[in-house]
Amino acid sequence: RVLGNINGFNTRKDGYGFQIAGLAEPPNMMRYCAPNIDKHGKPGKYDWHIDVGPGPVPSMRKLSYSVLLNPNDYEGGHFISKVGREDVAFESTGDTEQDLTGVMILFPSYILHRVAEVTKGTRYSLVGWAHGNSFI
Q1: Secondary structure element (H or E) that encloses residue 104, with its range
Q2: 2 by DSSP, 3-state: which?
Q3: What residues does each domain of the chain span?
Q4: CA distance 7 to 57
Q5: What residues contact 26, with CB distance under 8 A and at least 6 apart?
Q6: Going by CATH, does the domain composed of 2-131 fall within 2.60.120.620?
Q7: Are the C-beta atoms of 125 and 67 separated by less than 8 Å?
Q8: pTM surpassing 0.85?
Q9: C-alpha angle 71/87/35, rounded to 5°?
């Protein structure tokens, strides 16, 4: 189903149009806790990074995805990408009246992005990558 959703968007007129061969890595379950919940008192966040990396499999990452599993159960923890010099936040928590549980955030793996600090509760998401021939 994940690959179907990715290909469905990727091949649309307004999609990315990347050549996707499949999913070469299993997805990862991510957990980010507010500092008062973390056993070491550390803030749950993920600093700026890109998902393309060295090695035979990470170098083939073309599209990254994050599926929101419990967006109404935490505060903070926004997904933020860098577009030019601007930070663009995907409002994924109770800031909206729409239930975003199960929503997939899909973006090119070379885009700089992060998860902001969770300030209350615990954020769960499923992240993974669609693969194809390397961009270079």
Answers
A1: strand 104-108
A2: helix
A3: 2-131
A4: 19
A5: 128
A6: yes
A7: yes
A8: yes
A9: 45
